[in-house]
């Protein structure tokens, strides 16, 4: 039987990741009710950071071997430039690994440069791993088809050296493109949606949808103030924020949230939780902070949105807690559609706010009379190559979907970004939704 010491380092990293993951599940299941919020918050974040880093360690070993070890036998291995290259690769990997710890130590009103650099390296790391794996697979496929799997020669050595060089060049180009794309203001996407049983007096009602702003290590007050200015310029009747507003505790990041106080939609501004609100373990304080800015959280509840033209005309706006609250055993929280739609009948139009598209799917299975669901969460994948995974994992990916004859689901690609200040294959968006009566 092979001992732990005899395992290759990749296998040791995999075992370590498994241990951390098991500890996460154990603490979620058995310690959730026994720990105070602050201890639970730090434990959860520390576990998530350690889990991510143990998984990344396997990839980092591959990156080092592909970009450094491969060239140690070349004529340039003893040169000063190669020494600088080794240092650059080491710093790059160290920054990528440190990104997850910035949530614990580097969150303020505006992002720290270190956090921006660390998360940029994390984004480049993901892209680099993808290209190294893809090019390596193509190389192995070529060898197999060419019948050269057992032959070694100059051509093979040249291709082996070309693979990491090409992967690094592609990563640099896409990283720059992604940074430039994410640095642009969100695009304003105007969408008209027919809402069954919407009163004629509420035709052309304007709802502005925000999602996944992720105030935290790489998004601060300046970005949020820009979003608020753009929303106010649209002059919405209603503004809704469908989760993942922040990745930090309310007290720590309160100064960055102040621009939200300038939202003044005449029919109200409403908020539902996303999974990241529960990762902060500070939802109650977030609710109180948002209320101080005249933003109403919909905690498995609903409100009547009354027509400015006729008090007898209204529709039901409901919101559910994010489904992650159930996974985390977050006391007093969890998706409760029955409670959220209490008093909402099919006699009036129903609009539901639910952060995750999977929650939208579950809601429609239980209440097919819901007319419109507004969600976020997917970020449109945010960066290549994560787009494919986000598409496969969600029943609704991004944009407008019609489900049945009288039901629509709209999924926002996100108003900012999570951590990595990059966008590839997706674009940040502020959604202007025009509700049409039939």
Automatic annotation (TrEMBL):
Entry keywords, A to Z: Membrane, Transmembrane, Transmembrane helix
Transmembrane segments: 12-30, 42-64, 84-106, 112-135, 161-180
Keyword check for Membrane: yes
SUPFAM superfamilies, sorted: Metallo-dependent phosphatases (SSF56300)
InterPro entries assigned to the protein according to its UniProt record, in alphabetical order: Calcineurin-like_PHP (IPR004843), Metallo-depent_PP-like (IPR029052), Metallophosphoesterase_sf (IPR051158)
One term of GO molecular function: hydrolase activity
Source taxon at top rank: Eukaryota
Domain Calcineurin-like phosphoesterase: 205-380
PANTHER family in the record: TRANSMEMBRANE PROTEIN WITH METALLOPHOSPHOESTERASE DOMAIN, TRANSMEMBRANE PROTEIN WITH METALLOPHOSPHOESTERASE DOMAIN-RELATED
Protein name: TMPPE metallophosphoesterase
Name of the gene encoding the protein in the UniProt record: Tmppe
């Amino acid at each position: 039987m092979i001992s732990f010491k005899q395992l290759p380092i990749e296998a040791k990293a995999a075992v370590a990741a498994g241990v951390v993951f098991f500890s996460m599940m154990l603490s979620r299941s058995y310690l959730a009710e026994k720990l105070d919020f602050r201890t639970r918050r730090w434990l959860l974040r520390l576990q998530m950071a350690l889990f991510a880093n143990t998984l990344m360690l396997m990839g980092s070993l591959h990156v080092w071997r592909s970009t450094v070890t491969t060239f140690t036998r070349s004529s340039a291995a003893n040169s000063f430039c190669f020494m600088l290259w080794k240092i650059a690769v080491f710093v790059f990997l160290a920054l990528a690994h440190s990104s997850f710890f910035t949530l614990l130590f580097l969150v303020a009103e505006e992002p720290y440069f270190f956090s921006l650099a660390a998360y940029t390296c994390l984004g480049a790391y993901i892209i680099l791993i993808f290209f190294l794996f893809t090019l390596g697979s193509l190389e192995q496929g070529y060898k197999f088809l060419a019948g050269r799997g057992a032959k070694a020669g100059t051509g093979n050595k040249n291709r082996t050296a070309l693979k990491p060089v090409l992967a690094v060049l592609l990563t640099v180009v896409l990283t720059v493109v992604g940074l430039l794309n994410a640095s642009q203001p969100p695009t304003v996407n105007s969408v008209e949606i027919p809402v069954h049983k919407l009163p004629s007096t509420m035709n052309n009602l304007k709802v502005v949808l925000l999602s996944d702003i992720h105030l935290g290590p790489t998004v601060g007050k300046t970005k949020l103030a820009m979003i608020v200015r753009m929303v106010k310029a649209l002059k919405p009747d209603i503004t809704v924020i469908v989760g993942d507003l922040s990745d930090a505790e309310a007290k720590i990041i309160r100064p960055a949230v102040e621009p939200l106080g300038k939202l003044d939609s005449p029919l109200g501004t409403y908020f539902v939780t996303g999974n990241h609100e529960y990762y902060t373990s500070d939802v109650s304080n977030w609710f109180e902070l948002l209320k101080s800015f005249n933003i109403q959280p919909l905690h498995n509840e609903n409100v009547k949105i009354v027509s400015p033209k006729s008090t007898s005309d209204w529709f039901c706006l409901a919101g559910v807690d994010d489904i992650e609250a159930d996974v985390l055993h977050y006391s007093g929280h969890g998706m409760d559609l029955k409670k959220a739609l209490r008093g909402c009948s099919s006699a009036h139009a129903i609009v539901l706010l639910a952060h995750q598209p999977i929650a939208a799917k579950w809601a429609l299975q239980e209440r097919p009379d819901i007319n419109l669901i507004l969600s976020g969460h997917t970020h449109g994948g945010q960066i290549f190559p994560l787009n494919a995974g986000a598409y496969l994992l969600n029943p609704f990916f991004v944009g407008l979907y019609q489900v049945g004859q009288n039901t629509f689901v709209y999924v926002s690609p996100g108003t900012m970004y999570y951590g990595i200040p990059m966008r590839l294959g997706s674009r940040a968006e502020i959604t202007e939704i025009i509700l049409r009566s039939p």
